[in-house]
Amino acid sequence: MATCIDTPRKDSTSQLSRNPNRSPSDDHAYKYAKFCRPNTHVSCTPFSRNHTKTIKKPPVVVDDFDQQKSLWLQMKEEARLDVEKEPILSTYYFTSILSQKSLERALANLLSIKLSNASLSSTTLFDLFVGVLEESPEIIRAVEEDLRAVEERDPACISYVHCFLNFKGFLACQAHRISHKLWSQGRQILALLIQNRVSEVFAVDIHPGAKIGQGILLDHATGVVVGETAVIGNNVSILHNVTLGGTGKACGDRHPKIGNGVLIGAGTCILGNIRIGDGAKIGAGSVVLKEVPHRTTAVGNPARLVGGKENPTKLDKIPSFTMDHTSHISEWSDYVI
Predict the structure, then answer these.
(1) Model's pTM, two decimal places?
(2) Residue 106 scores a pLDDT above 90
(3) Which of 2, 130, 189, 223 could form a disulfide with 108 if both were Cys (CB 3.0 to 4.6 A apart)?
């Protein structure tokens, strides 16, 4: 199987728009405000900044390009430290990270190796993937935000490079970003091929037509299914065995719309063209068939709102950041949504 060793390329000059004056305690509120944009359906009501997320690293004030470069350099440094601890992995880390000149090429190389098979060479996939990534700075911005999301929210993640190399939810999400770009360019055959390979390799089935925001955590990810017309907002955390599906054979816009900052527990089914509001929490094992308002908790089969339909309990923290799956669940209501 071929391995793609990087060659120098011209640096990207794409710009982000972070606020250099934010404090560490405002970091998550900043992220929520940044990504809470009315893309298709959601409002932008901020939450309290007093949530429980612990920030692992102090923010560094840098310009936009330097910030992208900084994350990649940090990943390379983490790779060097890993090799010092486990020299047996030196070849793997060299081909995956240390020989690569950019995050784009490292990601294209890793995905091409994992998704190749006997009749679909890694070289062919690398050329396809790197072409898409190097021409799509918006995808790389999303990749970086996904890396930060996993490292900050998942206690099992010990470093950026650990997430990059070993977390199949992260890799499946990035492969989807590539397939979605191809889908939007009218290259449906290639997009569906990538979807199929991702489903076979990572056990994650996301239709290339689905729209996914930034700062996504697919925790464990096994069994995640996302339909063609689904929309997932920014800073969403989704556990394993979650289905965002349709209700039958209906055509057209038929899949759920997930707002910003939503937490979806393991084993959940959200079915039909319904909206899950910003900052909502869906309890594990729930079956959601009707709209869930902003900043509320739904749990059960069929799902019910905690606090009742008329006056549901409002959340004051962003559940996708806190990853709190159990608070308020004991207040499970008898009122059907």
Answers:
(1) 0.79
(2) yes
(3) 130
